[in-house]
User: What shape does this take?
Amino acid sequence: MELKDIKGIGEQAQRKLNSLNIYTVNDLLEHYPYRYNFINIVNIHDVKDNENCMIIAKVIESGKVQYIKRNFNRLTFNATSDNVILNVTIFNRAFLKPNLKVGQDILLIGKYDKLKNKFIASDIKFNNLENKIESVYHLVDGLTNNSLIKMIDNALKSNEYIDYIPKYYSDKYHFIDKLTALKKIHNPGSIDDIKKASVRLKYEELFTFMFKINYLKRLNSKALGIKRNVTELSKREFIQALPFELTIDQLKGVDDIYNDLTNSCRMNRLILGDVGSGKTIVATFAIYLNSICGYQSALMAPTEVLAEQHYKNLKDLLAKFNIKVALLTGSIKKSEKKNILDDLENGEINLIIGTHALISDDVKFNNLGLVVTDEQHRFGVGQRNTLSDKGITPDVLYLSATPIPRTYALTIYGDLDLSIIRTKPKGRKDIITVVKKESEIKDVLYKMLEELKLNHQIYVVSPLILDNEELDLKSVLALEEKLRLAFNNQVPIGVLHGKLKNKEKEEIMNKFKCGEIKILISTTVIEVGIDVPSSTMMVIYNAERFGLATLHQLRGRVGRNDVQSYCYLISNKDIERLKVLEESNDGFYISEKDFQMRGQGDLFGVKQSGDMSFKIANLKDDYQILLQTKEDSEEYIKNKGYEDSKIYQDIIEKITFIN
Ligand code: ADP
Ligand code: MG
Assistant: This one.
C-alpha cells in the first residue's frame, strides 16, 4: 500500500509529507509525536481572568465573519458554558463558520476575559470533547496537526506495519504488540500508555540497529582481504617525509593501519578524533601504503567542498611518493571527466577523491584496494552499488570527527576496529571560550571589534528558537540589524538562513571565504567542512539550546591557524553546563561530561544524522536499552534465529554498507 492509497492523502498532501521525509505508510506511522498536550477541561466558573483554559460550551447563535484585511478575518458567535453566556472571538478561522451549528457542543481553547465576558479562542474543537492527551507533530507549512492526526489514524487502519521484534524477545519482556504500541504512541489515553508504547518501540528500533551492527561484525570477522608485502621501512619513509612530527595517537593509528593492511584479514577501521586532530594524515598513510603495493585507493567525502579540500591538501604530499591523485566531482567538465574515468580504469590514477558520486555505475577501477570514507554514514538503504563491488575486497577506513565516549563507540561502532586520536598536534592553540550573560553583550561586541580591527572574521550563530520559520527569520534579521548598528554600518555582514536558495547560500559563503563579508550570521549549524582560516571568533547566541558536543563542534570552525581564536557563548541559563567548554578543548572529555550531565545536552548534535538518526530512541537516554539490545541481537545472531525470518532476511538484504 502506498501513501496515496491512505484515505485523506491526495497529491498535495503527499508532497507535504515527502518534505517531512515521509514516503511510505510505514514512515507515516513512524512519524511520532515530538510532544504531547495534556488537555484539561475546566469549569468556566473556575477560570481566572485572562487565564488560558479549555472549556466545553454550546453554540447558541451561528457565527458572523468580518474580513478585516487580506489574510485577516474575525469570526464571532455566542455560546453558553455552565449558564454563562460568552461572546467568542477567533481570528483567521472564517472557514469554521459552517461548522458552528446552533445547539452543538464544542471545546473552546483560549483566554477568558471575565470582565467583558469575552472568550478569545486560539482553537475550537468539535469532537472528542474530553480530557485527553493530544499528540503534537513536526509539521510543514500547509499541513496542520489535525490533518496529520487524521492521516495517521487512517494509516493505522491499513495494517501496513512490520513487527521487527522476534517473538522470543517480545514474550521475554512482555511487550505490548506493535499495532497497540503504534496506536498508543499516536493516541495515548494516559501517560502509562506512552511509556509502555515507547519502551517497546525504542527496543525495536535499537534491536534492529544493533542487529545490523552485529551482523556486519560477523561478516567482517570472516572476511579475507589483501595481504600487502611491505616492510617497516616503508612506514619510516612515510613518517620521515612529513613536515611535522606525528603525535603519539597518530603513530598508534599508523601502526594499527600497518598491521591491518599487511595481514590477510580485511581492514574495517574507524579513526575517531576531533576536527584538526590530524586524522587525515593517518588516513593518508593507508593510501600511501596501499599505493606503493600497486593498488588504487578511493577517498569519499560527504560534500564537494570537502572533497576539494582533501584534493588540495593531499595532491602535493602524495606526489612525493609518485602517487597520482584525481578529483571527481559534479562540477568537473564532461570531457575531463571522461579522461579521469579512463585513467582510473586503466590504472593511471592511484587515488581518486570525490563525493558519493564515486559509487555511481560509470566509475570503474583497475584494482581498488582501499576505500576511505570521511564523515559518512555506513548503511545505505537501497544502494545496491557499493564501492566494494568495484574492487576485490578492498580494505576500509572511516574517519569521524564526532568524538564520543569509548563505551558508546564500542556499541554503535561495534562492528569496527577503533583508532582514537585524542592528543593534539604540537603548538595547536586552544580556543579560548567565555560564557557571557546577555546583559554582558557589550564585552562581546568589544571583543568583536578588536578582532575585526585585526582583519579577522567572525561567525555568529543564532539557533532557531521557535518552531516558526517566519518568526525565526525575523529574529535573525533583527540580530543583523543590531550588529549593523553596533558597528555603525561599517562592517559587511552576511546572513545564512533556511529561506535562502542554495545558490544564494553559496554566494554568501563564497563572499565570507574571500573576506568580502566579515561577519557571518547563521541560523543553522554551519555546514561541516567550512574552512575559513582567517575566522578567529565565534559567537553563539542562546547557547543553552545546544548540547555540549555540538557547541564543541561548532567552535571547531575557528582556530584553524596559529592565531589565537575565541568562542563566546551567550546565555542566561545553564551556565554551569556551558562552563565545561571554558574548561576544556578535548572533545572526548566534553562528550563524556555531556553524557554524565543528564538533563539537557545531546551527544551527537542537534540533529542526529546518518546511522544515528533514530525516530524514537535516543542513544543517551536509552543507553540501557541499547546495551540490552546489543546482547539480545548477538544472541539472536548466534542462535541463527534470523535465518527463518523473512523480515530479517529483508533487513540483511538492505544492509549495503558503503565499502
Ligand atoms: P582532521 O582530519 O583530524 O580534521 P587534519 O588531518 O586535517 O585534521 O589536520 C589538520 C591540520 O593539522 C592539517 O593542516 C595537518 O597538516 C596538520 N597536522 C596534522 N598532524 C599534525 C602534527 N602531528 N603536527 C603538526 N601539524 C599537524
Ligand atoms: Mg588486512
Q: What stands out?
A: The chain has a mean pLDDT of 88. DSSP finds 20 helices and 23 strands in the chain. The domain at 228-263+277-400 is CATH 3.40.50.300 (Rossmann fold).
